[in-house]
Amino acid sequence: MHEHEAMLWDALDNGRVRCQVCQFRCVIPNGKRGVCKVRANRDGTLYTLIYGLVSSAAVDPIEKKPLFHFFPGTEVFSLGTWGCNFHCRHCQNWEISHCEPEEGALLRGQRYLSAEDSIALTRKYRCAGIAWTYNEPTIWFEYTYDGARLAKAQGLYTVYVTNGFITPEALDTIGPYLDAFRVDIKGFTTEFHRELLGLVKWQGVLDSAVRAKKKWNMHVEAVTNVIPGLNDDEPQLTALAKWILGSLGPETPWHVTRFYPHAQMSHLPPTPISTLERAYRIGKEVGLHFVYTGNVPGHAAENTVCYNCGNLVIERVGYRIRALGLDAGRCRQCGADLNIRG
User: What is the extent of the structural domain holding 17?
Assistant: First the structure.
């Protein structure tokens, strides 16, 4: 472990502390850890146990996040650590997100990478920016904050791939240095969130997405992993699409992605492609300009098409793209603003 005094916490009575980084706002007695298992109370001071500890690092296409309207065609240096404040039953990265730092180091190995070195590697590999991803970046807050400040000073873009359960205080602290907020909106009922991860007060995720966009002008794209029998019903998908339309705007991309059996949900079937196509139609009928199917390489709904004139703007096959009709974020044919940064 690599202990580092935490940011954003309060001292309480009897040696307890309250973490203010995620919306659980854990009250942690001396010698104990928060829900994420990577923030610990040491004699009345809150420490992060994972500062600079990297479980996963890769040069990824930005489309893999997925971000389709943010610097398309660029590569991003991507980093993950250990742990998560959510414990989703279907997690695709459970090997790193469902374990504590000690377990991760023992089972998979890890390396220490300073914030300065993370930016040096971003430049060495000729990436256009850096993303904190693979597990929840909020629990890595101090490290991502330091890295984001350094990245912006060197003209690199910065990305959070997040569950959105960050507090307003934490979001406002990193907000000046964060360019993109790729947020999971996992479903749109309390019953679903309770079943998937035991969460009842999930609406704070929505508040974070709005705050990221409207207060900090971050580029926001939303992802919903469509799980058979849990969040694939028409009322839930329709309500979610209408919320994106009304709260984030019709130009906000919505990715409806295919579920594959994993972790504690290995008994479920993969999402039928017809279900994703129905979610796509729901989003378009509600009025969203850009709805994409995910985890179905080669599907036509991976492409970006101008909502105004129907011109094919970006063609995608998996993570390979061809920009066909794009001019400075606008449709080359009719001039419509496509909400594409970069």
Answer: 4-48
